[in-house]
Amino acid sequence: MSSALAVEFDDIQGLVRFGYKHHTEAAFLLLRVRDRDAARRWLATVPVSTAATIEPRPEIAIQVALSAEGMRAIGVADDVVAAFATEFVVGMAGDANRARRLGDLGANDPSRWQWGSGGRAPHVAVLLYAMPGKLAALQQAIETQCDAAFERVACLATSDLDGIEPFGFTDGISQPLVDWERRRAARDAERREYTNLSCLGEYLLGYPNEYGGYTDRPLLDRAAAGPLLPRAEEAPDRADLGRNGSYLVFRQLRQDVNGFWQFVDRQAGGDARQRERLASAMVGRERDGTPMVGASDEKYEGGGDPGDLNAFTYRSDRDGVRCPLGAHIRRSNPRNADLPPGAPGIVSWAKRTLGFDADALAHDLVASTRFHRLLRRGREYGPGVTIEQALANAPARGDTGLHFICLGANIARQFEFVQNAWAMGVHFDGVANESDPLLGTRVAGRDGAPCDGFSLPRADGPDERIAALPQFVTVVGGAYFFLPGVRALRWLAGLPREGAP
Ligand code: HEM
Could you read off the pLDDT of 398-411 as tens digits, one per residue? Predict the structure, then answer.
């Protein structure tokens, strides 16, 4: 590997590589620029934690991301901002079509959000992580430092629910395995098997992605940009503002835990086993993480070690008898290869490639999972609610939910595709009139078609069909950010740009 190809861990913000799981305390500050110069001074020096490994593990970590509006607010030139991806520039709440595609309708409409639209659209997100007992002092110090430069849109607290999301299911089990060593051959044209190993360029700009190409990003004139920025790997005469940076999608998702458990309980006629079965089918895993499809010791590239909770694909359950086709985890990662599954051999391959395999065609909407992976970095918030409390309709002690955060090099192809085509898609994988059982808005499509069903296919008869699912998850805030490389952050903050070699 030439030095140009080495991964610069100390220029990458740590969240891309680490989930900061040992940092069980976290708070997210969402800020708007009050004083441009003060904001630039702070951004130029804030000690962001990098992806380099440090022993012993530091007690705190700080990550800083900017929205497109935030870049403009600190004085980044319009043409530079415009060279970032359109969806980032427009913003999550920036247009009605995007809102419709993301399911931000009805109760999710951005006009109802607590933050993220209009004058409450954040410019800067400061993510603070700390080991137990260390957050309060860190937060106070950062808030004091930021006070002159920024006004606060929100300060989002998080809760440590011990790896269990508020509905009661183990979360954070499945993640793509990022190819930090860059083992994956570029221009790897076709993957016939599901793979969990994912090119670095799927999460970081400036490195080859799953198409073997470099995702578009601002490549600047080196003389004008100055010496601070790295060179573009594929165009060394250009300064790469994107390199080592990632887009960060943030959505605050409020969860109606009482509503969820009371609904499944009613469907189950109060039977505890049936209640668990239905709730697990909606997620695609039992509460302890056991996959509904059954642990199969299925090993694949980059994961699925025998015995782990990810040792499965849906190859042996194509009709969704064990894990419904519409289950949340099946929608958000159908674990497909580039071609629909089929028998080995050239004839089968040709049929599937040319689209003459009727059985494969029914599933082809969900091919090519590897282009739509997300690095999830979310945290829970609010008080935990037990199932017993939820069933007893115990009064809420405050909102609870998920600060959903994911990273990717292409918001449109990753987060927006998964959210729109797979989670909200009413015809996902051949199912009809359904959307994600956890995330769906239940707002009928423009043709009036309902999307509030959920079906559990049976091996020996018609599907078991659940109707009139209520909305369990409501979007209460959201924004797209750019999590820059460390040099790019300093450059954006206006550190000297003169003197390019
Ligand atoms: C409050 C909202 C949500 C809840 C309660 C929730 C819950 C869960 C749970 C329990 C799992 C299983 C644990 C695991 O496999 O790691 C999971 C997996 C996953 N979720 Fe969500 N989730 C939510 C929102 C979202 C959103 C908005 C997206 C993306 C648009 C998403 C994408 C995923 C993905 C990609 C996986 C891993 C699937 C796999 O690789 O098998 N989730 N989620």
Answer: 999 999 999 999 99
What confidence score (pLDDT) does residue 354 get?
Answer: 52
Q: Is 158 left (phi over 0), alpha (psi -120 to 50) or beta?
A: beta
Task: List, in sequence order, every beta strand (DSSP E) within 87-218.
Answer: 124-130, 150-157, 177-178, 197-198
Which residue's CA lies nearest to atom 31 of ligand 1?
332
Question: What per-residue confidence (pLDDT) applies to 367?
Answer: 61
Three-state DSSP class for residue 498: coil
The pLDDT assigned to 497 comes to 57
- The reply to whether ligand 1 has any atom less than 6 angstroms from the CB of 171 is yes
Determine whether the shortest distance from the Cβ of 174 to ligand 1 is under 6 A. Answer: yes
Which residues are paired to 240 by β-bridges?
A: 219
**What does pTM read for this prediction?**
0.95
pLDDT, tens only, 68-119: 999 999 999 999 999 999 999 999 999 999 999 999 999 999 999 999 999 9
For the stretch 161-164, contacts whose Cβ atoms lie closer than 8 Å and that sit 24 or more positions apart, written own/partner, are: 161/380, 161/384, 164/287, 164/380, 164/384
Q: Which pLDDT score is estimated for 500?
A: 41
Query: How far does residue 139's CA lie from ligand 1's centre (Å)?
Result: 28
Dihedral sign, CA of 16, 17, 20, 21?
Answer: positive
Q: Are 453 and 466 in contact (CB under 8 A)?
A: yes
Q: How confident is the model at residue 190 (pLDDT cuts 50, 70, 90)?
A: confident
Could you say which DSSP state residue 435 is in? -
Atom number in ligand 1 closest to CA 423: 30
Write phi, then psi, for 345 (nearest 5 degrees).
115, 155
Residues in a beta bridge with 455: 465
Backbone angles phi, psi at 84, to 5 degrees: -75, 170
Neighbour-count burial for 291-328, b at 16+ CB within 10 Å, e otherwise: bbbeeeebebebbbeeeebbbbbbeebeebbbbbbbbb
**Cβ(473) to ligand 1 under 6 A?**
yes
